[in-house]
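Hi R.,

Here's the chain you asked about this morning:
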Amino acid sequence: MKYIPRLIEKEIIKAAKSFPALILTGPRRAGKTTLLRKLFPNSSYRLLEDPDVISRVRSDPRSFLEEIKGPAILDEVQNTPEILNYIRTRIDQSPNKMGRWLLTGSQDAALMKGVTDSMAGRAAIFSMLPLSLMESTKVSLIKGGFPEAIARPSSARLWFASYMQTYLERDVRAISSIRDLATFRRFLSLLASRCGNILNRTDIATPLGVSVPTISEWLSIMEITGQILLIPPYFENFGKRLIKSPKLYFMDSGLLANLLGIESEAMLNRSPFLGPIFETFVASEIVKTQINSGRPKNLYYFRDHQGLEVDFVLPQGDRNLFLVEAQASKTLTPHMGEPLVRLSNTISNYNAECIVLYRSSREKAEFSALRPGVRASSLDSFLAKIWNSKRGKE
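And the predicted structure, written out as C-alpha cells:
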C-alpha cells in the first residue's frame, strides 16, 4: 500500500528533536505505526500486543527494555502501561537523548493509565486520526478515511467487518470487563442509527435492556478509543435557554455507513441516513483539521429550547465565530441559511461568519453568496480556510 504523507509529520519531526519520547494515540488502524516507521526508519520495533510479549514485559520489564536498541517504536503501549515507569527511569538517566522512545496507543493519551503521571514533561503527545480530505482525495462519505479501507475499496466491507471484530476483542475488552459482546454489537448498530442526534442515553438503553450507567460506560469506551465524537453545546449563553446534552457523531463516516448497511453511493443517496452521515463527515473533517494543525478539538453545536439549531459553532478567538450548517443536498436554496441568520442576529456582540456546507459536484468549490450574510462552500474549501486561519495566513 502506497504511503500517503500526513499533515502532522512536521510537528512530530520537530517534537522528536525536543523531547526524549513521543506518544502518538488514535483509533486502531489510523496509520500511527506506518507514520512512525516512515519518519524514523532506523528505529527498532516492538508490538506490545502478542500475549507472549505482554507476559514478558510484565514479568521482567527491565530486561525487555535493555534488549531494545534505541530509538525504538513501542506499538500499542496501552496493553502494558506499567512499562512507562521504566521508560521514565531510562529517560531520566539520559535526559539529553531526544526522540529515543516512540510510543503508540489506541486509547486517548489523557485517559491512558500511567501516561499523565509517568511521562509528564518527558513526552510530546499527539493525536492521529484516520486520513483527512486534506490528505487524500480518496477520503469520502462512503469509504471514510481509514487507509486500508480506501486503498482497497472493493474489499472495504470485509475490512470493516474484520476491524470491528478486532476492535471488540482487543480494545473493548482491554478497557472493560464486557462479557456480552453480542449486546455491545447491537449497541454499536443502535448508536449508528442515532448519529447526528442529541444524545439520549435512556433512548439507547431501553431497547438493549441495559442500564443508563452501562450506556455511559460504553460511550466512554467508544470515546477513549477514538470511535465517536461527542460534540458539546456551545458554552456561551446567548441570552437563551440552551440544550445541554452533546450531539453524537462517529469519527469515521465509512465505519458509520458500514454499521448502517450502506455499501454504495447509490444506497447512500437513497438512504434516510444521508444527512446524518454527511454531518458526521463534516464534524470529523473539521476535528481532523484542527488536530492536524496542532490545535485541540474546538467544535460545538447550538440549540435552544425554542428549536433554533445550528449544526456547528467554531470559535476563532477574539469573539469571532464560524456558524456552519451541513447540507447533504447538492442543490442550494437561500432557506438553508435561515438558522444561521436567526442566530447571528441575536449575537450582535460576536463577529459571526455564516457558512452553509454542501456536497459540491466540483472539488474545492469556492465560497459563494447564498443570501445576505450567508455564504455557501464545499467542505474542502472550508477546511482550507480553517487550516489557513489556524496558521495565521488569513
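The mean pLDDT is 90.

Let me know if you need anything else.
M.
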